[in-house]
Design a protein that fits this description.
Blueprint: E1 13-15, E2 22-25, E3 35-38, H1 62-71, H2 78-84, E4 88-89, E5 92-93
Antiparallel strand pairs: 1-2, 2-3, 4-5
Amino acid sequence: MKSGMEWLIIYPFQVSSTYPGKVFLKKCDDDESETTFTLVKRSVDQVPLNRPDPVTPKGLSRDRQKYLFKSVRPYVRPMFSGHYMPSTVRGVIFIL
């Protein structure tokens, strides 16, 4: 039985925007022969080119804010606790 890293072989490879979805692989840097394989399963024409619409986070619920204030704030350094974990959130004062 082989131990952990004996089976791991890393080959030099190259990808190019000229040939999207293709990977060019060699056995070593000096090797003249090159193997090509396709990395994507669907046609490259179907790959979206535009970025998706941004997702705006809704923020934390009041219960989650209370939980974080009570459970996490004691571990925040005092010099940062007022900035990152204020004791008032949306007008509610948390008392420990």
